[in-house]
Queue: 2 jobs
Job 1
Amino acid sequence: IIDAFYTKALKDNPDLTVDYSCPISVFVTLFDDCDELDGRRIIFNSYHSKYPDTIFLMQKRELFLGNDWNLEQSLRTDWENLTPNNLGYGSFYNDGNISKLEDDLFYTDGLLFYRII
């Protein structure tokens, strides 16, 4: 799961050293109201960190859980079509920088982490 979490970081920096001694923490928030859609919005905030104050890597991803959707549909949430004025997004924190986690990477290698979760 740590390797799946580091997919983008390792593509950006293949020489990156990953600390396998620390856990990944995942915080999940579920919102029942999702812009009048028939379903819910779920937000994953995931951190690979070392207590008390070191964050190695952070990811945030928002997905839609449609009442009649299967898991694969939810994992591939297309916010631009669902709610173009209220986009869910993924973000990626590494080395003090926050950037958008691009969908093309998320839908290939990055999706494995969220399938595991």
Note: The CA atoms of residues 1 and 111 lie 11 Å apart.
Job 2
Amino acid sequence: MANPGYGKRSMPDQSPACADDFTLLPPRERCIAGFIDHLPDGASMDVKSLAKQLPLYGQQAVGSALRTLSVAGYLRRVRCLVGEGDQVRWVFRTFWSRTARDNEWWSSRLAPERREAAPSSAVQPPPSCTPSEDPAPAAEAPVSPVVPQQRAPEPAPVADGIPSPAYLALAQLGRTDPRLALSAADCAVLEARAAEWLARGVTVDYLTHALTSGLPARVGSPVGLVRRRLVDKIPPYVPEAAVPPAPGETVRRAMMECTKCGVPGRPEALPDGLCGPCGRPDASQHVGSPAGSLGESDVRARAGHVRELLRSR
């Protein structure tokens, strides 16, 4: 375990653990990702500590795997300034998500500044801000994730058999306009796409109005029309506006850092958790020829044979 305030921090709204996690990763990254996912919050996440616990891989292999996991959207590293008055220090944390996220999602969760109430206040920080610096992670209200467009949408969570707001909004479409009457199966299929709208900050009324406005006189396939509108009319993501700190609140500084070299920067300056030099391919590394390609001598021999054939004609 790392010192209090350091180490692994799990992000909210992760999909349940299953045997198919990390199956799209290479074998080395899949092994290290599975090991990290089973570590408790507060565990050491530096390269040396991980290499000691993974006898199959050295420090360089672990460092390369962490870089790959950062590009794939599973982790980010952040520096946070903690303390009061003159007694402040930088702490380094690694935020982990079993569900791969895109840069937009990470930037919204790991804002460069966060606010928390003074110790005498009973107000708790909002769940969308950077997590607390206490060693034990605070309980946070679930927030619907912004799903990367390159991955399949995740189903919206259902607690204790209660339908999600996205499911209820789809079920109410038929009562708002009979031309969009959907079955229970249709609502279940479209639930994840509707949840993506709500995750971007729109209300249920906004979603209903966008789906029911401007309908044709006859709708042959309500589920097809709703699916098309959910894809084509999805609203843009708008980050929350910065609110000046209230009296009795302190401002905490946090900076994301490059997963490979550790240089700090704002989230938008570190796409995939990497700075510009680390994100570019290494020009010093030799790029081998594709499998089955001809060597230089074979190419010259074949070119000479073609020239002889042309001369004979």
Note: The chain has two domains: 7-135+240-279, 165-232.
